[in-house]
Structures are given as C-alpha cells and as structure tokens.
Amino acid sequence: MSTSEHNQTQSDQALTELASWLRAVGDPIRIHTLRLLARDAFGVQELCHLLDSKQPSLSHHLKILLQAGLVTTRRERTTVFYRRDPSGALAGTLKHRLLAEIDAQPLPADIELRLQEIHQLRSEASRRFFTEQAAVFKTQQEQIAEFQEYGPLVSRRAIRHGGGIAIEVGPGDGDLLPLLSPHFSQVIALDNSPEMLQHSRQAAAELNNIVFTLGDVDDSNNPPELPLADVIVMNMVLHHVPNPQRLLTRLCHLLKDDGRLIVTELCAHDQDWVRDACGDAWLGFDSDELISWLSNGGLTSVSADYLALRNGFRVQIHEFTKSPITRTLI
Asked: Where are the beta strands (DSSP E) in the chain?
C-alpha cells in the first residue's frame, strides 16, 4: 500500500468513527449521560435517578454509547458502573474535541441538584464507616496491605522533593508522618474523620512541624484552607472516597508548579468482601484510569511501581509532576 493510500484509509476510518460518535450523541439524554460520566462513574440505578429516566429506556441509550466506544463499563459486585472511555482524554483527537464541546455546556439545574445528593450520600456512608471503625481499621486494612510493604518506597519518593510543604491526605495511623517530618518545613496531616485524625496525632505527638487539619478537599461547601504544597501523598485512600476523579482533580490544584503527587492505590480486583470489612467504595483502579484523570488535571506521570501483596492484591505507586509547561498546554 502506498503512502497516499495508507493516509486515505486512515482518513476514511476517522470519518467512520466520527459519524458513529455523532449518531450516538444525537439525543439529549445521551448528551447529559456523557456529561455526568465525565465527572464520575455511576451505576444504572444512579443514572436513572440523575436523569429521571426509566431503566429500559436508559439501558438502550447506554448500549448505543457503549457500541460507539464513548463509554466503558466495569462490574463491581452486582453493579455495573459506567465511565467515559479514557481515550477521549487524549488532547487533539476527534473524540476529545467532540467530548470537549459536549462538556462545555452546563448540566441542567435539576440534574446538578440530584448529582449533589448522590455525592452527599456516598460521603456520609464513608464518614460513617470511619467513625464507627476507626479503632479497628488498621487491623482490617492489614488484611490487604501493611504500611511497611509500600511505605518506605513512598517515603523515598517524597523526601527527594523535601524542604517545603508536604500534605498527606488520609494519614490513617500516622505511620508516614515521622518519615516525612525531618525533610519538610511543614507537614499537613489532612483527614475528614476526627477519629482517624486522632490516631495520626497520637503517632506524631512529639513532632513539632506537623499540622493536623480536619477537613475534606472534596467538600465544595466547606473546603479546608490549605497552602500550595511541594509534595502531596495519598496512600490507600482513593478506593474509600465517593468521587475519586474529582478528588484527584482538586489535589492537582493544591500542588505548586513542579510539585509532586504520589498516589498509592490498589490495582483493580474482584474481592468484594473488602466493601464490608474495610469500607471500600471501589474495588481498586486500573492504572490507565488514574493516569488519565491526572493528565486531565495537568499532571504528568513520572514513574509507576507495582507490588504483589497477600491474598491476591496488588498495589500501584504512581508519582506525578505538575509543570508550568504541561499546565499551559492543557
């Protein structure tokens, strides 16, 4: 095949894909669905509530979006969650430009209100678990992963960029705080559970540069007042939060230029017993999913490590950087 024939074939394929996408978005319900899935993953019942739609009708719309490659699915327990296809995050592609036009329009006020209700219910369930289980959470969590299995690697990555301000989101029992403290002028331990924050405080009581802050970065109504950080660390937290994508986006905004975000998280798995035992909202994450979300927030992947753990679990440790050049391009 000649170069011109190859280019023509690629052009024909692109036009065929574009035609498929345009047909798929040719309905207000499907457009609203795509806008919602840009913000979070939802099950069918949640989408029915959000869109005030009957399940048979909405399932038909979702099938069209799936066939067009605009959304993907993932089963967790008995629920199938829908997300936007991550390839739509690749800047400059036809899919990215089409979805960017869709996202430029605001959600209707009634849908926005129902969306806030769902996120509020998810947040309350998470807080309730940690309030009730704070005393035994470490024991439950160690069925999956112990801090010493990933903590030293996370610490080494963080202190390479020491000297300024570090924030640890969800410090748990405070195991990382003594490792960070000697290398930063200030370390902020941030948690939305008073009970869990108290456990962190007990572990780091003798460290005079730790600031313990009760608050939730993901709380739109009452976010904590935080300085921009040189390093943000979040270990084994994301699978507990109601809206992982939104939390990561907000953490991007808390980073200084050239700052580092280090995320330790479970790889995707199918062991749903962790929902009841450990309060997990999500059964881990695909690494491509995490990288896509943070790329949308203006961060660039620096490194990724993967550790095999007991009981068939795997942990992924990602380091991202926020450069002025990357942010400007996005």
From this structure: 42-43, 71-76, 79-84, 165-169, 186-191, 210-214, 229-235, 255-266, 300-308, 314-322
